[in-house]
Design goal:
This protein has a five-stranded parallel sheet with strand order 6-7-8-3-9, sandwiched between helices. It is of the alpha/beta class and 209 residues long. It is globular. The protein has a single domain, classed as Rossmann fold (3-Layer(aba) Sandwich). Pfam families: ABC_tran. InterPro entries: ABC_transporter-like_ATP-bd, P-loop_NTPase. Keywords: ATP-binding, Nucleotide-binding.
Amino acid sequence: MTESVFLWVKGLRFSYPECAVLDNLSLAWPSGLALVRGDESTGKTTLLRLLAGELTAQAGSITLQGADLNQASKASAHQVFWADPRSGELDPLTARGWLDSLPARYPRWDAAAVMAHIEGFTLHEHLDKPFYALSTGSKRKVLMAGALASNAPLTLIDEPVGGLDKPSIRYLAQALASQATRPDRLIVVAHYEALADVPWGSVVDLVRL
């Protein structure tokens, strides 16, 4: 069992000043596709931010392929992809400029894949727009094109279908499904329900504490 576990989360606890969100959460996930499911305020985004090292847990550990992410957050930056779709941090950048910056961070970057995702998400006309000028759906599609092409061993995607049209949702399901059997990668998606036609290998349901 241990050899097949790609991501260990043990005894994770996290509270904001106003409320507890995660209490003694433990996961043992293989590579492939994982779904974090739950209603609003159940901690889906918080869990992704903890996995990304953007937040620090009050207790517990996170181990990716045998490496403790809490101890090696900077050294392992290229191992984890996370881009918060709600953040305005990227607003001044164009979509193309941001995508062009990613190969320097992710050594397994797949240039052919990003072109395929730009085509699949119909992003060509948006590439030279700054992020602040993109619609919610277009911004998410740019972020997901980068996420999928990064080939980061741990890839985190939050609420992927917000603002997406039906063809883009279908393309996303196909793109995720194509990654389902990879032994060298885990894609974790947080969403309030399962996306149709995506072969999730692992699912965790979060509830409000």
